[in-house]
Amino acid sequence: MTDHPNATLIRRGYAAFGAGDMATLDSVFADDVVWMVAGRHQLAGRYTGKAEVFGKLFAGLGERTGGTLEIEIETVVADDHQAVVLCHHTAEHGGRRLDVDAIDYYMIRGDRIVQARSTNYDASGVDAFYA
Questions:
Q1: What is the separation of C-alpha 102 from the centre of its chain, rounded to a whole number of angstroms?
Q2: Nearest CA to 13 among 30, 1, 34, 38?
Q3: Which end of the chain has the lower number of beta carbons within 10 A, N or C?
Q4: Which pLDDT score is estimated for 90?
Q5: Residue 42 carries which DSSP code?
Q6: Cα separation of 36 and 25, whole Å?
Q7: From the CB of residue 117, how many other CB atoms can be counted at a distance below 10 Å?
Q8: CA-to-CA distance for 127 and 24, rounded, in angstroms?
Q9: From residue 69, how far is each of 72, 74, 90, 91, 118 by CA, in Å?
Q10: Which letter does DSSP use for residue 28 in this model?
């Protein structure tokens, strides 16, 4: 079975994120993308526009994980307007270890992600890691 085009878009975005490929990431997200991150940690909150998503959220993830963050996609479910990703995050930094399952939800318009929401199955563990 062939992936839905939006599942392919999402997989391309995750691969680009893992490779630090900002040109591809730029092509995946709408200019006015809104990304919401659940939790009570330093990176939790709302990011509006590519400048904040890339410059604050993505850069913050790199800083807070020492560049060790790895995201393994387990499942992508997509239709014409949205995608859901079940994934697993691991990282080690500053004597702390992150090992958590997560869910990312994306709204897609045309061929761009316009909204994203990230949550996980261990809120206190993620909060402690990103503290």
A1: 10
A2: 30
A3: N
A4: 97
A5: T
A6: 17
A7: 16
A8: 29
A9: 10, 16, 6, 4, 15
A10: H
Residue carrying the six token digits 């992508």: 76
Q: Is the pTM of this model over 0.85?
A: yes
Is residue 35 scored above 90 in pLDDT? yes
| Residues constituting the chain | 131
Is 82 strand, coil or helix? strand
Type of residue numbered 85: V
Distant-in-sequence, close-in-space partners of 28: CB < 8 Å, separation ≥ 6: 9, 12, 13, 16, 112, 113
What's the whole-number average pLDDT of the chain?
Answer: 96
Tokens of 76: 């992508």
* Listed residue (5, 2, 1) closest to 113, CA to CA: 5
Q: Which two tokens stand for residue 53?
A: 């998503």
Residue whose tokens read 């604050």: 56
Burial (CB count within 10 angstroms: exposed 0-12, middle 13-18, buried 19+), residue 81: exposed
Q: Which two tokens stand for residue 98?
A: 């992150």
Q: What is the pLDDT of residues 46-98, one digit of tens each?
A: 999 999 999 999 999 999 999 999 999 999 999 999 999 999 999 999 999 99
